[in-house]
Design brief:
This protein has 253 residues and is an alpha+beta fold. The protein has a single domain, classed as Muramoyl-pentapeptide Carboxypeptidase, domain 2, CATH 3.30.1380. 37% of the residues lie in helices and 10% in strands. It contains 8 helices and 7 strands. The strands form 2 sheets. Strands 2-4-5-7-6 form a 5-stranded mixed sheet, with helices on one face. Strands 1-3 form a two-stranded antiparallel ribbon.
């Protein structure tokens, strides 16, 4: 009888410790280990689309003051959250770098100052919508219809001015994004005759126009600050359209 009790106790111990070991092994099994994904590093630098180039990498003397990264624009709100540099198609950026070289030769100390370069279509739409009180024929003079695209949307247009050796913008007789007729290059002669545009202001506009023209840039008839690198048809054929800020960067969020 004593032997039977010992055997039963022995068997019970085997079962008890066997269960404990099995549980322990199961806990150590790699099949039950949770592998947590590493937290995403949202501070990583954005990688630029290979079609584009930061203008200042072509020519560090070119300055930027992107108006749509702040509320200091005609909409009064920040329109760019990821765009911090002036981006253009590579060949367009290289041409603009040569414009800076031309400007420096003519006026040492003078520099180009960029107000806007690549602009996504969704921002273009916001601008278009903001001017809905204007007649269609007037609105298209100031903002391209997003349905037809703007050369800004393809990195083939630049809004810019010139600053002197002290960093002060030259007086152009009208500010950037001024929709009044005095900002129109096509009306310069009339405003010059009336005295509303001074000879110095006219000369400053002419300087900007001439150095840009030296590299094939074409001025918009209604904006002294806007220059196209090519026609819209050429741009649509050769360049990518950027619809949102996320399209500009390879590692999208």
């Amino acid at each position: 009888m004593m032997q039977l009790r010992i055997s039963i106790c022995f068997l019970f111990s085997l079962v008890l410790f066997g269960c404990h070991d099995a549980t322990s092994d199961h806990a150590k099994s790699p099949l039950t280990i949770e592998h947590k994904k590493p937290a995403q590093n949202h501070s990583q630098p954005l990688l630029l689309n290979p079609d584009l180039l930061d203008v200042q990498l072509c020519n560090a003397e070119i300055q930027i003051e992107l108006r749509y990264t702040t509320a200091a624009n005609f909409l009064g709100e920040i329109l760019y959250t990821k765009i911090k540099k002036a981006y253009l198609q590579k060949d367009v950026a290289e041409r603009l770098a040569k414009v800076q070289d031309q400007l420096k030769q003519r006026h040492p100390g003078y520099k180009l100052l960029i107000y806007d370069a690549l602009r996504p279509v969704d921002v273009q739409q916001k601008m278009w919508d903001a001017l809905d009180t204007l007649a269609f024929s007037e609105r298209v003079k100031f903002v391209s219809n997003p349905k037809n695209l703007s050369l800004h949307n393809m990195g083939a247009a630049i809004d810019l001015t010139i600053i002197d050796a002290e960093g002060k913008p030259l007086d152009m007789g009208a500010d950037f994004d001024d929709i009044r007729k005095i900002a129109y290059p096509t009306h310069e002669s009339a405003f010059l005759r009336s005295g509303e545009l001074t000879a110095k202001q006219y000369a400053n506009r002419s300087l900007l126009r001439n150095v840009m023209k030296s590299q094939g840039f074409r001025q918009l008839p209604t904006e002294w600050w806007h220059f196209n690198a090519c026609s819209r048809e050429e741009a649509k054929k050769n360049y990518t359209v950027f619809y949102t800020e996320n399209d500009i960067f390879v590692n999208r969020f």
